[in-house]
Amino acid sequence: MKRLLLAPLVLGIAIPIQAEETCTFVSQYQPDVTIEVGTKHVSGATGYIRYKGSPVLNFSTGIQNGYGGQSFVITPIRNSPTDKYEKIVSGQVVTVVGDQVGIKGTPENKRKRGQNKLFFPEFGLHYYYSLAGDETKPDGRFGGRTNEMTSILRAAEGFWIPSKICEKYVYYGWN
Asked: Could you tell me if residue 5 is inside a domain?
């Protein structure tokens, strides 16, 4: 009987713990702003946009059905499940390999090797207008802007450099 009671304990020690891997995209010009993606789904992944390590916005990316292409969605972090779903921006992800746009249709003999970089078109524009606020909070586009808002806005206009583990999250590249 004592052996049966010890079996779950011994089995629990012998089985390795599966830790989720975290993919990090660092802003090329604002290193305090990162995108961390840690939950991979069948056709995409989710995570956060972080400022100095603290989550600020939700981020998700995935492959579209049909013709294909990689897309992204950025939403505010909801405080409770009853909060209204609000999308700040969504659109296509542009992958750049070295100095070329990373498109699978590029013939292999024309592909140049280089660093993968991602660009999220319209992220900056839509983030800027999401800072408008309402009567209860200041207008973050002008008077109420914080260092966090400014850094994210500057990062949104530039490239994002993926860490090595992110290669499985960058769908169009040939390195």
From this structure: no
Count how many domains the chain has. 1
pLDDT digits (tens, 9 = 90+) for 79-137: 877 888 889 999 888 888 877 776 666 777 777 777 888 899 999 999 998 888 777 77
pLDDT digits (tens, 9 = 90+) for 30-83: 999 999 988 676 667 889 999 999 999 999 988 777 566 788 999 999 887 788
At residue 167, φ and ψ (nearest 5 deg) are: -55, -30
Domain coverage including residue 57? 19-168
Q: Is residue 175 part of a domain?
A: no
Q: CA 49, CA 58: separation in Å to the nearest integer?
A: 6
